[in-house]
Structures are given as structure tokens and as C-alpha cells.
Amino acid sequence: MELLSFGDRGWGDELARATAMTVAVASCAFLLGLVFGALGSFAKLSRNRLVAAIADAYTTVIRGIPELLVIYLLFFGGSGALMFFARMFGHTGYVEINAFATGVCAIAIVNGAYSLEVIRGAVLAVPRGQIEAAKAFGMSPVTLFRRVLAPQVLRFALPGLGNVWQLALKETALISVTGLVEIMRQATVGAGSTKQPFTFYAVAAILYLLLTTISGHGFARAERWANRGVRSA
Fold first, then answer.
1. How does DSSP classify residue 47?
2. Which structural domain, as residue segments, surrounds residue 116?
3. What is the tens place of the pLDDT at every residue in 57-75?
4. Residue 115: in which H helix or E strand, if any?
5. 143 has a pLDDT exceeding 90
6. pTM of the predicted model, to two decimals?
7. Total structural domains in the chain?
């Protein structure tokens, strides 16, 4: 256990910091993905065919290619694009995108595609009669959204969004290829330094399971809160 202890002789400090980095990346990516998903869902439900087609293309492409490829495209492609623009202003050096920003954006783009479909399904699940009744009472669009649509969409979307969050947590392991020190990267470094790969990868598995278990309980409580007052079938 000394290998995993805190202090100069153990790797506990490094693993704790890596866990915090994993949660930070997943949280930022999940929230940004929610923004992408919300905007994309309303775009896909739009009566404008061009806007709906763009949103549909986004989900089709992103859900059809590996997440790792999205990370590579952003990390290397983004650096190439920045270098192109930098040369236009006389800069000849190498420009590298921040690994944290790359990880957040890549996972957010992927999560956004899944969140889009979750939110779109939740919007379609809201009974039309409730919306028509709200309009009949003379509710403004803002009041209708705040008091009728948003609470119902949240209730229907929470189970799916819980799954999207779990995916975000696990997808953080992929951004280790950018050099960002999260759980998987730290486990790899520790395994290589100590020649104890099973120990470090087993600890990494336990940390991921711990995070997903806590998250699962959190979303379960959120679902119970969102469904308060709703008569069960």
C-alpha cells in the first residue's frame, strides 16, 4: 500500500490530482455539451429545413465516427489551423492547443450529439395538450417555457442525460493522448515508472467505478426530485 500512499514515496497525491482533473474535464464538457444539445435539439425540431438538416448532419457525423478521431482532429487539426493563421501575421513557430481545452471541446462535441437526441426526445414526449392548454390560458412563450415545457423536458431527459454524463466521465480516458494528466494518463505514467501496471490500472478502474457510482446515485436522486408529485403508473 506504500506505493499508493500520499507523500514523496507514494502516488496517492498524483492520483488524487488526476481524479480531480478527470472530474473537471467531464463537468466542463458535459455542461458545454448540454448547450450544444439544447441548441441542436431546437434546431432539429425547427420548421426550417436547412437548420434541421444541419443539426441532423451534426448528430449523424459525430455519432458515426470514433471519439478518439474527434480528439485527434481537434488537437492536430486545430493546431494546424492556428499555425496557418499565425503565419499570416508573421509567426513561424509551432502553435499548440491547450490539452485541457482540446479535451473539453472534443468531449463536448461528442456529448452534444447524444444530448441533442435526448433533449429532442424529451421535448417530443411532452403532451401537446399541456402546451395547447397553456396557450389557451394566454401564457406568453417565456412563461410557457418556464412553467410547462422546461420542467417536463427536464423530467423526461434526466435518465438519458445521466447516461451521457457517464459517457463523458469514461471518455476523459481518451484525452490522455494529448498529454493531459487525468486518471488514465497518471495510471500509465505510474505503471511505467514502477513496473506495476496491474496495480495502477486496477486503481484507475476503481476510481472510475467510484465516480460513476456516485454520479449514478446523484442522478437517481435528481430523477426522484424531478418526478415529485407525479403519479406513478
1. S
2. 22-180
3. 999 999 999 999 998 888 8
4. helix 99-125
5. no
6. 0.87
7. 1
